[in-house]
Predict the 3D structure of the following.
Amino acid sequence: MQQKFEKRFVLIPMGLFLISGTFIVAQFQAMPDLVRGLLFGTGFGLMLLPFLYKKIKPSSY
């Protein structure tokens, strides 16, 4: 049970890393809005993915 928990929720720090990295890069370099939105969306999606999997397929976890 603990091992499956770690595998599923490792996506949350990855999402936070993408979002914080986008903030840092945007402070020093001009980024197009499309690229910034893509990175933010990917980060938030990675953070929400474990919770969506839990709702969609509760029997697999």
The first helix runs from residue 2 to 9. The two ends are 8 Å apart (CA to CA).
